[in-house]
Amino acid sequence: MRKHEFKDLLNPESVAVVGSTSRNRFYFLRSLVSAGFKGAIYPVNPNVKAAFGYKFYPSLLDVPDKVDLVISEVPARVTPKIMEECIKKEVKCVVVFASGFSESGTEEGVRLEREIVRIARDGGVRIIGPNCLGIYHPEHGLAFRPDLPRDPGPVGFVSQSGGHAINFALMGKVTGLRFSTVVSFGNGCDVDAAEILDYLAEDPKTKIIAVYIEGVRDGRRFFNSLRRAAARKPVVVWKGGRTEVGGRAAASHTGSLAGSPKIWDSVIRQCNAIPVKSFYEMVDTVLAFTFCPRVEGRRVGLVSISGGSSVVNSDYCSEVGLEVPQLSEGARAKLSKAVQSVGTSVANPIDLAGSFMNMNAIKTVFETLKEESVIDSVIFELAVQYPSFYADFIDNPSLSVTFYNMLVEECLKVKEAKPVLIAIPQVAYEDAQRYVRDLFVQAKIPVFPSVERAANALKNIISYYTRGGSAAYSTSECLEPQSR
Amino acid sequence: MRKHEFKDLLNPESVAVVGSTSRNRFYFLRSLVSAGFKGAIYPVNPNVKAAFGYKFYPSLLDVPDKVDLVISEVPARVTPKIMEECIKKEVKCVVVFASGFSESGTEEGVRLEREIVRIARDGGVRIIGPNCLGIYHPEHGLAFRPDLPRDPGPVGFVSQSGGHAINFALMGKVTGLRFSTVVSFGNGCDVDAAEILDYLAEDPKTKIIAVYIEGVRDGRRFFNSLRRAAARKPVVVWKGGRTEVGGRAAASHTGSLAGSPKIWDSVIRQCNAIPVKSFYEMVDTVLAFTFCPRVEGRRVGLVSISGGSSVVNSDYCSEVGLEVPQLSEGARAKLSKAVQSVGTSVANPIDLAGSFMNMNAIKTVFETLKEESVIDSVIFELAVQYPSFYADFIDNPSLSVTFYNMLVEECLKVKEAKPVLIAIPQVAYEDAQRYVRDLFVQAKIPVFPSVERAANALKNIISYYTRGGSAAYSTSECLEPQSR
Q1: Chain A residue at shortest CA distance from B184
Q2: pLDDT-based confidence at B341, cuts 50/70/90?
Q3: Which residues of B touch A167 (CB under 8 A)?
Q4: Dist. CA B264–CA B277, nearest whole Å
Q5: Using CB atoms and an 8 Å cut-off, which of residues 49-78 of chain B contact chain A?
Q6: Distance from CA of B110 to the nearest CA of A (A)
Q7: Cα–Cα distance for residue pair A17/A43, rounded to 1 Å
Q8: Residues 6+ apart with CB under 8 A from A119
Q9: Which residues pair with A379 in a beta bridge?
């Protein structure tokens, strides 16, 4: 008896936090409050009378009103009892935070997990978890940390790991990414990755999906869902436990059997989803999808400040399969007039060299790249250790502020025609790095910590689009994601 | 006639900056002053009477005293004339900043470069450059930027690119690396990579050498020097222009013919030097050499705060060829008592989970890893988004400060027995990231922005030592490098 679809679980009118305790300073309760949950919140703990302005109830059954969602913080062995109470209260869904179920590898853990699944199926209540953090759904004010962005956005994330769910959501603060729905589903004994994927595929507010998965019980079902989702919007899949020892760790983490990474990668690709190998590659790729217009061509215009950077940035792009074509003769003629020519290459890569703070030269560079038909996208390595140093050096620190703001304007013009990706090397001038990054992020231009990572993310989205992947939104929508 | 060896060029008693100009705000003059150059400085420019408290001379020949080193900022076409004056003044060495020589690909540029080489050879003056920044030798107060660390250290860097030379030197500020001698040698028409390598190989203050090279004119000579240097100390080689398009950029940058990357990598390895593919890999590897005791075993103890991180960190280590072995039974027994066991793995990787701020648990973890014979080194992923969040959450922000300082103490104890590498994920809590990084850097424990990068650097130094590479210093010296 499955009374509730996953989509019915995301907008509860009321939440009970069962087992809310001072030991963790009422973590989940406070997460809901911080996220601005607008419905009723009922903390349940027989040993607490009140905290944070909330009256506590001795048991779930004592809550006088209906309860849609239960977040259960009680230990594994008490969970079956709480499940029974949920059925009596006609709760739709229980998030089970406790670990100590099948992932523990013990007989008792396996038995307990079977038992809660049986209770749930018989009684028509859904389970997220166990061994999970549950739901971050900022639009409705659901959250599993008090410090996540409160505003929603276009990214959906299905994560078997609570830690990665927290980390990705937190990274929204520095990348500008915002989320529709993030689900940490842990052991996935009832609601699983496939079901969440099915939902995110249909959800009009989710434009891009990321998945962190350690293993699946029903491979056919998962890959069918993945294929359907990837036919509708970009899906980036990070497989944890790609190696023997990683697989061993996954077994004790979420009870997952890992499977061969080669098979995973090839099946993910067959589904037209994008396999990634690390947390940062996942974030970078989602970032490129979110803030770049659709792009199929591999020809990059590379702009940087030093000759040595031009050389190695060309290497980084070529090594991931991007092209760095020579510009047309017309474009080169225009650039050699504008950019200080000594020690400079303007054929592409473009070395700004001594013109690195000459705004007229830079305008010409960006205008030329915008119009140049042999260029499909632009990667600009903005090494702040030059402009920020120079502004200090000439005793005019505000110059760099003016300069950086003008750069953003120029990049926005290019973005009307093709993707622009910014790389800010993590070298020195850390305050300037952060300041400049935030300027570009506010302008919805994606920022990466190196040209290598920008190039790899760009390659990933190009591969998806050239295989016929559908852009989740048009260029104009892309330019205004709901992400800030 | 080669009157002066490279080592004679590094300790000039007097420097003349010829062509020092207000257009670049007397950049090289001010770099020397900022670096604390203790000898005489003579700025030369017929159009300037005085600046920054310095009297300017109309020409080099007007300088009343002897001049050991000339930094020439004059344009390419004027350089031969300056060279002639240098010979008259019996200058030992000229750093030629100007570009517009052979790298320009023009007949005139090639002719000019031949001419200055001829003048130099005939007159017994050495040239660094042209198209370069010259020498950063903090011990003697030579520098090519005013914002580089003033204290010297164990790292030597031979760089065909001025930009990379600046970037690496600047990164000293955030990594704790310090430098003996950094030379940006540009086109290398006289002093070249081989000669600088020969010097650094012999220099007792240089413990580790890094090389950025785009191409060499005399391959046999370069690789002989590389082999000799790598027999004495670790040499990390980053080849720029590894790809066709990177090679094209290198040709216009330093006039270098790039050569096949595969051949380069294999010859570098044959020399027992360490090939790296990127700026960050170069920095990371030098960092590991500088702050890790000699290590030959590949067995890593992995510590992190979440189960998902344990899984993927195991993947990252395995994928570069490190091992993450299960701990001995005794060790596991000890750990399962100390670390909150629910949802936690203590077999290795070790997931601190809910014990992430329990100092007694953490002490046990580090003590155990220090003593555990199946573990050769430790990578600790310190995700500050947990402790720093938690300290705020419980309204006790100073708690995290105490906590981080205690962590450093524990890691220092492990380092008495084996290398400890810290990875601070770049997720959020950026102020905390920086604060914690600086704490570890001050303790001479290397910090990386991800476990991936820490693991790769560790793999690089292990490969070097297992191939019989000699540690440049013993463990005890390593624990006290001259780097801060």
Answers
A1: A308
A2: low
A3: 383, 385, 425, 427
A4: 11
A5: none
A6: 14
A7: 5
A8: A80, A83, A84, A87, A125
A9: A302, A421
Pairing of strands A40-44, A93-96: unpaired
Is B117 buried (19+), middle (13-18) or exposed (0-12) by CB count in 10 A? Answer: middle
- Read off the amino acid at residue A348: N
- Of A483, A306, A271, A270, nearest to A381 by C-alpha is A306
Structure tokens at A332: 């080169």
Percentage of chain B exceeding pLDDT 70: 95
Could you say which DSSP state residue B137 is in?
B
Is A100 in Cβ contact with B323 (below 8 Å)? Answer: no
Quote the Cα angle for B58-B4-B217, to 5°. Answer: 100
> A159, A236 in Cβ contact below 8 A?
no
| Structure token digits, residue B317 | 């280590």
Predicted pLDDT at B228: 96
Q: Which ipTM value was assigned to this complex? A: 0.94
Tokens linked to A347: 């054929």
Q: In what order do the strands lie in the sheet with A69-72?
A: A40-44, A14-18, A69-72, A93-96, A126-128
List the one residue out of B369, B337, B329, B367 whose CA is nearest residue B350: B369
Measured CA to CA, the distance from residue B333 to residue B364 in angstroms comes to 11
Q: Which of B103, B164, B245, B434 is best to mutate for the A interface (most A CBs within 10 A)?
A: B245
Per-residue pLDDT tens digits for B352-363: 888 888 999 999
> How far off is chain A from B26, nearest CA to CA, in Å?
10
**Of chain A residues 160-199, which have a CB less than 8 A from chain B?**
160-164, 166-167, 170-171, 173-174
User: CB distance B244–A318 less than 8 Å?
Assistant: yes
Q: Are strands A377-381 and B377-381 parallel, antiparallel or unpaired?
A: unpaired
Q: What is the pLDDT of residues B243-282, one digit of tens each?
A: 888 888 887 777 766 667 788 889 999 999 999 999 999 9
Token pair of B20, please?
A: 């020092």
Read off the pLDDT band of B94 (50, 70, 90). very high
Residue of B113, B133, B157, B315 best to disrupt the A interface, most CBs of A under 10 A: B315
Compute the distance between CA of residue A47 and CA of residue A443 in angstroms, rounded to an integer.
Answer: 50
Q: What tokens does A22 get?
A: 């001072």
